[in-house]
UniProtKB/TrEMBL annotation, chain A:
<dbReference type="InterPro" id="IPR051449">
    <property type="entry name" value="ABC-2_transporter_component"/>
</dbReference>
<feature type="transmembrane region" description="Helical">
    <location>
        <begin position="302"/>
        <end position="328"/>
    </location>
</feature>
<feature type="transmembrane region" description="Helical">
    <location>
        <begin position="201"/>
        <end position="223"/>
    </location>
</feature>
<keyword id="KW-1133">Transmembrane helix</keyword>
<feature type="transmembrane region" description="Helical">
    <location>
        <begin position="244"/>
        <end position="271"/>
    </location>
</feature>
<feature type="transmembrane region" description="Helical">
    <location>
        <begin position="20"/>
        <end position="40"/>
    </location>
</feature>
<keyword id="KW-0812">Transmembrane</keyword>
<protein>
    <submittedName>
        <fullName>ABC-2 type transport system permease protein</fullName>
    </submittedName>
</protein>
<dbReference type="InterPro" id="IPR013525">
    <property type="entry name" value="ABC2_TM"/>
</dbReference>
Automatic annotation (TrEMBL), chain B:
<keyword id="KW-0547">Nucleotide-binding</keyword>
<dbReference type="GO" id="GO:0016887">
    <property type="term" value="F:ATP hydrolysis activity"/>
</dbReference>
<dbReference type="InterPro" id="IPR003593">
    <property type="entry name" value="AAA+_ATPase"/>
</dbReference>
<dbReference type="Pfam" id="PF00005">
    <property type="entry name" value="ABC_tran"/>
</dbReference>
<comment type="similarity">
    <text>Belongs to the ABC transporter superfamily.</text>
</comment>
<dbReference type="InterPro" id="IPR017871">
    <property type="entry name" value="ABC_transporter-like_CS"/>
</dbReference>
<dbReference type="InterPro" id="IPR050763">
    <property type="entry name" value="ABC_transporter_ATP-binding"/>
</dbReference>
<keyword id="KW-0813">Transport</keyword>
<dbReference type="InterPro" id="IPR003439">
    <property type="entry name" value="ABC_transporter-like_ATP-bd"/>
</dbReference>
């Protein structure tokens, strides 16, 4: 093993630029595309200006409520700037939260809390306006509830003595716990769609596609070395061709696996996305063993590279990792042959892992070609 | 001592080697001549253990190829007709690469000496910039790393200049005479064969080679 490591390091030293490039390609390409997509997504969100004339918890909460709304990009400005940008159509609409906002809500005064502006090109004005109205109504409702509870306490001589703030806080706590305003509906036997991840692309799906490509391109060493005349000399060394190939496969496997684990840590750190280590390990085995076995079928690297790109293109289109898979009609059989399915679904056993394991076993037990 | 008894090999209907027998003593250099397709390379590949013969026995230092198949190749050095080197490696790296895979460990100093002995001085030059003669010398040097008893050379001087050819010839002669190696050698260069070989075996039925060898004053042994 030590001898093969030394010889492999000699090869790696000669090709370190391409080796490092293809090792880091899935990680860097995934990060770049995710960040670019996020920036583009942000640019396509509707810009809405908010002017805060008072800085209270109520006004800040309203701002956060608007900020959380999907497809809205909120900008905090002063009134002159906001109106100037609205005139230039750089903002879709402007909402000015006036001084005394919190006090007015607490006094159940719902008039003239906010002034809104729109232009002739505004199209997000109505939904944002409705959102703000709904928020104000929700808050004034809470205030009314607190007022009623206080009145009832006095009427029935309650010993609880809840303060106004305590009642409002309790109301928010109940709302959060019950999650009354955010319920997902789904048909029986179909999974509920999550509203948490609003990214355009699945990070692990992207990584899986790029990883498949880089693994295949890294395993071109099988073709290059088997084609080299120098490999004939293995017959006169202590290693058979098969032992040499298997040990080198293991070195590549470990090297790429370490890069995969680094990618997992970086994705978690940057995007908060995690995946089980067992999933990565099995996907790594599948991708590396598949590339290794497929490379044995080729004698020309150009044809191998072309096939790798074609295969990855088909996988990326069909798997749903990059493009939505719904256009292929939700075919169950495609899920079965989709090599990314185990990685994305978190399953450990798939048609591919079983097939690759069988073919790898058959390759290992196949007899070496040398006579003596 | 290499002993070959009734060795036969055919490819389909074509009989390449037909019950050939010979033996070579340590320190002897044997040249194999014959027209293209006569079976020179096939014989070398069988003796190297790379091809299985149809029938016949081969023993090297009394060890049978059949009974010791895994160990026999550690006593064989094979110099292929092609330049079997890593082109992007230096001379040093090529030697170290194959030394790492060899059965025995050889110090880098000895590897360098092996190259120097055959006039290969460009230790740190990449193979791709070496001349044809230098590449041939390295091709030979790598085959000697594990100090084999039997050295099989398939046209080791093809396409190289006269000086390199003479240097390789002189090195092989010393290797056989001083170190007692058994050497089998194929070449189309009759001058070279006549000069360095103790015995010359003629393969195939073409009378041309018999005639040429007689003109050189050598008696070919027909296989």
């Amino acid at each position: 093993m030590k001898q093969i490591i030394t010889t492999r390091l000699m090869h790696w030293k000669k090709q370190w630029v391409s080796l490092v490039f293809w090792l880091l390609f899935p990680l860097l390409a995934t990060i770049c595309i995710t960040l670019i997509a996020a920036a583009l997504q942000d640019d396509t969100n509707v810009p809405v200006g908010v002017v805060l004339e008072e800085d209270t918890d109520a006004s800040r909460e309203l701002v956060e409520e608007v900020r959380r709304a999907p497809f809205i990009r909120l900008k905090l400005l002063n009134q002159d700037e906001a109106l100037y940008e609205l005139e230039k159509h750089e903002l879709d609409s402007v909402f000015v939260i006036h001084e005394g906002f919190k006090e007015n809500i607490q006094e159940d005064n719902r008039n003239k809390l906010i002034t809104s502006y729109q232009s002739d090109l505004s199209f997000a004005y109505q939904p944002v306006k409705e959102m703000i109205i709904s928020y104000v109504q929700q808050e004034t409702g809470r205030v009314k509830a607190a007022f009623t509870v206080n009145q009832l306490e006095q009427e029935y001589n309650s010993q609880a003595n809840w303060t106004f703030e305590e009642i409002v806080a309790k109301s928010k706590e109940i709302q959060k716990n019950e999650n009354l305003l955010n319920t997902d509906f789904s048909f029986p036997e179909s999974p509920a769609e999550t509203t948490q991840n609003t990214r355009l692309f699945s990070i692990w799906g992207l990584w899986g596609v790029f990883n498949l490509l880089s693994t295949w391109l890294l395993f071109d060493w099988v073709i290059k070395e088997k084609r080299s005349k120098a490999i004939l000399r293995l017959a006169f060394t202590r290693f058979s061709l098969k032992a040499y190939l298997i040990q080198n496969f293991l070195h590549y496997f470990i090297l790429i696996l370490l890069t995969d684990l680094l990618s997992a840590v970086i994705f978690y750190w940057m995007f908060g996305e995690w995946i089980s280590i067992a999933n990565i390990l099995i996907y790594r085995f599948f991708a590396a063993a598949a590339a290794f076995l497929v490379a044995h079928l080729f004698s020309n690297t150009f044809v191998y590279y072309t096939s790798a790109f074609a295969f990855v293109l088909i996988v990326s289109i069909g798997s749903g990792a990059i493009l939505p898979a719904s256009f292929i009609g939700g075919l169950a059989w495609f899920d079965l042959i989709n090599p990314l399915a185990p990685l994305l679904s978190g399953e450990y056993i798939s048609l591919w892992t079983v097939l690759i394991t069988i073919f790898a076993f058959l390759w290992i037990i196949r007899k070496d070609r040398y006579h003596a | 001592m290499l002993e070959v008894q009734s060795l036969s090999k055919s490819y389909g209907a074509k009989q390449i080697l037909d019950k050939i027998s010979f033996s070579v003593k340590p320190g002897e250099i044997v040249g194999l001549v014959g027209e293209n397709g006569a079976g020179k390379s096939t014989l070398l590949h069988i003796l190297a253990g790379l091809i299985k013969p149809a029938s016949g026995d081969i023993t090297l230092n009394s060890y049978s190829y059949e009974s010791r198949p895994k160990n026999i190749r550690r006593h064989i050095g094979f110099v292929p007709q092609e330049i079997a080197l890593w082109e992007n490696f230096t001379v040093n790296e090529n030697m170290v690469f194959f030394e790492r895979l060899a059965w025995n460990n050889t110090h880098r100093r000895e590897l360098r000496k092996l190259c120097q002995d055959m006039g290969l001085e460009k230790w740190n030059e990449p193979v791709k910039v070496l001349s044809g003669g230098m590449k041939r010398k390295l091709n030979l040097a790598i085959s000697l790393i594990h100090n084999p008893d039997l050295l099989l050379l398939d046209e080791p001087t093809a396409g190289i200049d006269l000086k390199s050819r003479k240097e390789i010839g002189a090195y092989l002669t010393n290797l056989a005479k001083i170190n007692g190696k058994v050497i089998l050698y194929t070449s189309h260069d009759m001058d070279e064969i006549i000069q360095i070989c103790d015995q010359i075996y003629c393969l195939g039925n073409d009378p041309f080679y018999h005639q040429v060898l007689k003109e050189y004053g050598r008696q070919p042994i027909l296989l």
